[in-house]
Structure formats: structure tokens, C-alpha cells
Design goal:
Rossmann fold, seven-stranded parallel beta sheet, two-stranded parallel sheet
Length: 276
Amino acid sequence: MILVTGATGTVGRPLVDELLAAGRKVRALSRAPARAGLPAEVEVAATADLPLDGITSVFFVMNAFPGGSAEPIARMKAAGVRRIVALSSYSVLDDDPKNMIGVKHRDLERQIEETGVEWTFLRPAGGFAATALEWAEQIRTDGVARFPFGDAWTAPVHERDIAAVAARALLTDELAGDTPLFSGPESLSYADRARIIGEVTGEPVRFAELSHDEARQEWLRAGVPPHAVEARLKMFAKMVGRPHEISPVDPFLGRPGLTFAQWVADHTNTFRKVTS
């Protein structure tokens, strides 16, 4: 049986579907099992309980364990889990000690390697397409996408592509001991993202560039910690005017990656304008 942590999350949910389609038994962890809304054939359990009986492989998401990864990883090792496929980040390649995303994911990879179990570390690059959901409410209400760096470039990756690579790592031996790094198939600015959302939904979206102070206040109101706000501003500033390098997912899936337009098509109703 395969254990999926973070099973109702951005990557975990499509991964559950991938594994079911392959005919595999799935135990899905959720912080609120009663509200998980997963298919009936999925065994749903509480993340806090971490039931590992009968589990041979695990999809591991660090954010599913806010208390830290070390203890659940040690329990997986002790329970006889043979393979852990972890959602890491290409930020591990940045050795800047101030890059906390890289630091945390390097620590995660080290903890898993030290167990001696088989592993695969997924390193998606270019940002998640799903970050565009932060615009959903403002697009629905007034057709505007607000962001401080209209000319910051990324290569947004569809969560279904991440889930498909994870499924391959869980279901075959082809990615054992590998660190697949892949981005979305196209380099886009944030202004491009807004335009594409409008094109796909048929409801034009205007991009409004925020000043740094406006963005700072908006993110603080949204609950982003002050140190993370400043890190965001620095990170996006480095992306301005620099098209993102494309790392194709084709070698891992045998097909091109899904485009941002395809991602929007999968989430069209999320961006539909509110009508009275």
C-alpha cells in the first residue's frame, strides 16, 4: 500500500487519482479526514496518527508535518517503509544560507538519505502554476490581478505534472535514487499570467503593478510573516527581465509539460467574475 501525505493538497490530490488509476491501494493522510472528500476506495486517516501498517512506499510532503520531518521519517524507517518520494525544491541547489526554502529542503533530503531507504527527491522549478490562485478573489470581484513585479519571469509548473512524476517514482524503479528537476514548458512574466487567465476564461484581466510598499502591506495583511515578505520582494526582484530557464518534464513523463493555459482551463470556475 502507498501512503500519500498532504493528500488533499495541491500535489497530493492529483497524485491520489494517479495511483488509483494505476490500480494501487492508497492510504491518504489529512489533518481533517472527515472533510477530505477523497474517493470512496481511498483509506483516509489522520496525519497526527500516521498509521504505517502495511505501507511500503510514501509520498512525503514536508508541510504536512508542521512539527518537523525528523520524527515521522524515523517512524517510517522503523515501520519498514522501503521507499520515500519527497516533494523537495530546486532551491536546494542554492547554497545561500539565507535562502530558507533551500535550507529546509536540503535538511529534508539529508534526513531521508540518512535512513538508508530508497528515495526520490522531486525538485520542481519555475514556481507552481497554482500560486495564481492568490489572485482568484480579486479577479472574480473586479477583474484585476495585482502584483509588484509584472516583468518577473517564471516557468509555472502544473501540479498534475508534479503528481505524474511522483507516481512514476512510486510505481516504478526508474527514478530510484534520482533528483528529477523540471519546470513548466514556457517562461512567462506575471503580466503574461494575468493575460492568459483572461484569454482562457473569456473575461479579460487587467494587470495592476503594485509598488513594493503596497505589496508589503498586502502580504502582511494576508498573514505572511515579515521576514518572508522581505524574502519574497528580494526573490522576485531578481527575476525581473530575466526569462526563466526551461527544464523539460518530457524525459520523466514521455510527453511535454502542461502549459499555464491548460492549468487555467482546469481552474476556470475559480476565476469567474462574481455576478449579481
